[in-house]
Amino acid sequence: MLGAIIGDIAGSRFEFNNIKTKEFDLLSRSCWFTDDSVMTIAVAHAILQCNGDWTNLSQQTVKSMQLIGRHYPHCGYGGRFKTWMFSDNPQPYNSLGNGAAMRVSAAGWAASSLEECKTLARKVTEVTHNHPKGLKAAEAVAVAIYMARTGADKQTIIDCINRDYYRLDFTIDQIRPTYTFDVTCQGSVPQALEVFAEGNDYEDVIRTAVSLGGDCDTIAAIAGSVAEAYYGVPQTLREKALDYFLDPGPARIVREFEQKYGMKLAK
Fold first, then answer.
1. What is the DSSP track for 83-146?
2. What is the pLDDT of residues 106-119, one digit of tens each?
3. Quick one: which of 47, 98, 96 has its CA closest to 223?
4. Phi-psi region of 234 (alpha: psi -120 to 50; beta: other; left: phi over 0)
5. 237 burial level (CB within 10 Å; 0-12, 13-18, 19+)
6. For the whole prediction, is pTM greater than 0.85?
7. Measured between alpha carbons, how far is 101 from 259 in angstroms, rounded to an integer?
8. Contact by Cβ (8 Å): 69, 77
């Protein structure tokens, strides 16, 4: 889960000022956490509250998103999601935006089987992003995380993505020169998964994601969530990222989630 948060923070200062290179200060004073981090933490909170009984996970996800999300009203929510966030009667709005994929990582860590992983991904996504393309994106990312953390090799993970979700028939170098801002799932999730496919280690994945441009904080959050499960996160980046949260609540949720469902440090 922290893999997504670090990616979000690293990409934050380049979201609307893209940098098409991997050479940059990874976590600088100019970085901040965005809605990607806040909602990743909210989903983790919902899963913790359910404590293994997923019957009411969707309802709890709504509660957790509103409870935590309303504390950060200026962190970058999209218009429709912000309306949903402050609604007294929040309903799914058929979104196919990449928010479905950037916040789902906790589902890949909490699941005890591949089928349960898919169920959790759907439950935490359908509360807003109930469009088939949104649901597919969330499932693809959660499945990749589950496979990575349970020992699948990278080629097996990519073969699964190619077979069941998206054709990764391009390279980042091929698309980088012309890639632009695209917040749809189909316009950013395959790209994020290809970033993971090409990465050499966790930090390389984040740098590649940011260098692609476009909605780079979200692309880095998605790619980083899978990279954490596969490579682990360097301890130095973990501690530095948590320092961006001045309120101790988010860091406490991260640590509680990792204590219950595990984490992976880079070797």
1. HHHT-SS-------BTHHHHT-HHHHHH-SSHHHHHHHHHHHHTTT--SHHHHHHHHHHHHHHH
2. 999 999 999 999 99
3. 98
4. beta
5. buried
6. yes
7. 23
8. yes
